[in-house]
Write a structure and sequence with these properties.
Layout: H1 9-25, H2 39-57, H3 66-70, H4 75-101, H5 106-123, H6 135-155, H7 160-163
Amino acid sequence: MVRAPGMTHDSARLWDRRASSQRETGRKARPGMQLDMPTNVRRFLWLWWAAFLIGAAEIPLTPPSSMLLDLGVTQSVQTALAVGGTVLSLATLLPFLWFAVRRRKNWARWVLLVSFIISLPLEFLDPSIYSGDQLPLTCMALVSALAGAAAFYFVFTGDARPWFQEQREPDSTLPGQARPSTRSG
């Protein structure tokens, strides 16, 4: 194990693991990059970003709301509000995405799933997207919803399941020894 001055034992071990993984796979490791991320978690990440970006691309195609136009809100203000809402939702969801994908926190993937489920009715609530002249917007909303659903399918199945299991401390009992009882009463 190679240790540079100032490196702790744990960081040196992590560095060696990344270097050996890089040699085995031929992939270059960037600082903070986890090469051992399961395939389904990686698929989730790509599909989540695709769904989010497709949803953001819908903003310029969205027709102005007649209700807001009646209140005196112009189309440019409506677009600015939509962009602001998208930026705010991204700023809110990014920490949860980071906790889920990089820190392997199970609660974070559940928060992301609940936010996705809550957003589905909001995506299809506006009846104007179902008119014939809004076919591109309807298709984009449907593709975004399907990409999000596929993302959450991957993050809850296959090799993603063990990734999110809580990290337990190693069992200190020796083989053949009885484990201490934690029951009271």
